[in-house]
Amino acid sequence: MKVLVVFLGGGLGSVLRYLFGKFLNDPISGTPYGTLAANILGSLLIGFILGWAAKQEAISQHTLLLLTTGFCGGFTTFSTFVYENHVFLKSGAFGVLALYTIASFVLAFLAVFLGVWLVRFF
Questions:
Q1: H-helix or E-strand containing 3?
Q2: What is the pTM of this model?
C-alpha cells in the first residue's frame, strides 16, 4: 500500500512539474523558470506539510507518503536542475549558472522554513 501511494503522488507531482516547465520555461533564452518555480513551491509545500504533520497528529503515514515522498518528490527535481546547470556551463553562461544555482538553493531552503512557519497560522 505504501508503494502505491508514493506511486500515485509521484505521478501527480511529475505531471504538474511537466506542466510548469511547459508553460513557464523560456524557450528563447532557455531559462528554466518552471523548474525553479517547481523546486521553490515544492520546498514550501513539503515544509508546510511536515510542519502541519508535526502540529497535528491526525495525519496518517500513508497521507504523508503520498504528499511528501510521492507528490513533492515527483514535483521537485534535482536531476533536471543539475542537467540545466550542465547546459549553462557547457554554453559558457556562467552568470546565469551562478544566479540559477544560488537562487534555487537559497529560495528552496527559505521556502521550507517558510512552510514550517506558516503552519503556526492554520
A1: helix 2-24
A2: 0.83
